[in-house]
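2024-03-11 09:14:02 DEBUG pipeline.ingest accepted 1 chain
2024-03-11 09:14:02 DEBUG pipeline.ingest length=399
2024-03-11 09:14:03 DEBUG pipeline.predict start
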Amino acid sequence: MNTTGRPGRTGLWLIGARGSVATTAVSGLVALRHGLVEATGCVTELPAFSACPLPAWDEVVVGGHDIVSTCLPKKAELLADAGLLPHRLLPSIQPGLTAVDAEIRVGYDPASHRGAQADAARRLADDLRDFADRHALERVVVVNVSSTEAPVTLLPEHRDPAALAAALSDPERAPLPPSSLSAYAALLAGCPYVDFTPSTGMRLPALRELAAERALPYAGSDGKTGETLLRTALAPMFTTRALRVRSWAGTNLLGGGDGATLADPRSAASKLESKSGVLSSLLGEDVTAPLHIDNVPDLGDVKTAWDHVSFEGFLGARMTMQVTWTGYDSALAAPLVLDLTRLTAAAHAAGHSGPLGALAFFFKDPDGNPEHGLGEQYRQLLSWANDLAFPAAGEGEAR
C-alpha cells in the first residue's frame, strides 16, 4: 500500500460490521455519496477542514468482519423500524448496503475457534490484503465498533512482540482478546487501526512496538458521543470560572446490543473506567463522581443520560445543575467513525505513525494525549489538520 501523498481510494474495514453503529455509518456513507442527506454530525465536513487532504465519500470502500449473519439491508430495516434511519432512504441505499454486505467476512469468535490464534490472525490479515488488492486501495483503515470487552490482565507476552508471536502459535493458549487479535491482524496487513470501543485493542505494549516497527498510526479509544461529550464541554466551564465542583453523579440508561453487553459487570468495567477518567482529569481526584449504567431493553438504541452536579460558589453558596441527554447512540457515533476513517487515512498518507493524539477530540480515553477539555482538544485537532493541509518544507517523513 502506498503511504505518500493524498489518501486516494481508502478502505474502511469495520470490526463488528453488521452492528448498529456500523450499519448506520455505512447507510450514511451510501446516502452521502448519492447526495440524499446532509453531512450533519460529520466534523470533517466543517469549513475548517476544507483544505485537509481527505478521501472523498466516493473514494471510501467498505468491508469488514463480523460473527453474526444478519445482512446489512435487514439490519437497516430494523434500525429504521426503531426510528434511527429514515424509511424513505431504504430503497435508495439498499444496493449500496448489499454491495458492502458482500465484502463482510467471518470474524474471529473465541467461542468457536479451534487451533492457534496465530492461524486466526493470518486469516483476518489475508482478508484485509485481499480486500485492498481487489479494490486497488491505497490503504485500509481498520475501525473496531464491536461489542465492548471486559478488561484483560497484562501477561508477560503482552510486552514483547517475539514472545507474543510464540504464545499465539500455541494452540492451547489464547493470549489476546478479540479486539487485540483484530489489531494484531491489522498490523500484519499494514493497516492503521482505530478503536472506537473501550476494549483493550492496541493498548498492549507488544502491539504498540509492532506498530512502531511498521510505521503505522493508530487512534482510540472509546468514541465520545453523548454524556462524556457533554462533560468535557461543561467541566472546563466550572474550572475556568473558579467554581468548586463537589460531586458529579451520572446515570446511563440504554437498551439494544450495547445495553445487553454492558449488563455484564465485566464488560461494563471497561466502559465505566473510560468514562470516569474524564472528570478526575478535568476537576481533580477529590470530586465524588459515582456513575451507573443500566440496561433497559425497552429503550433500544435510544440512550438517556442524567447528570447531577453539586458545586460551590462565592461565600460558600451551594448550587446544583442537572442535565438530561437523550439521543440515538448509533446516530451520534456513525459520523465520527467516518471522520476518523478520513483523518486516519490522511495521517497514514502523510507518514504519521504511533498514537494519533490529535484525534483526542473524538474519544473518552484518548491515546497519546492527556487533554480532556473539548475546546482545547478541538483547537489541537484544527492545528493538526492544518499541518496536514500545509506541511512545512521537508516534512512528510514518518513521525
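2024-03-11 09:14:41 DEBUG pipeline.report Residues 393-399 have pLDDT under 50 and may be disordered.
2024-03-11 09:14:41 DEBUG pipeline.predict end
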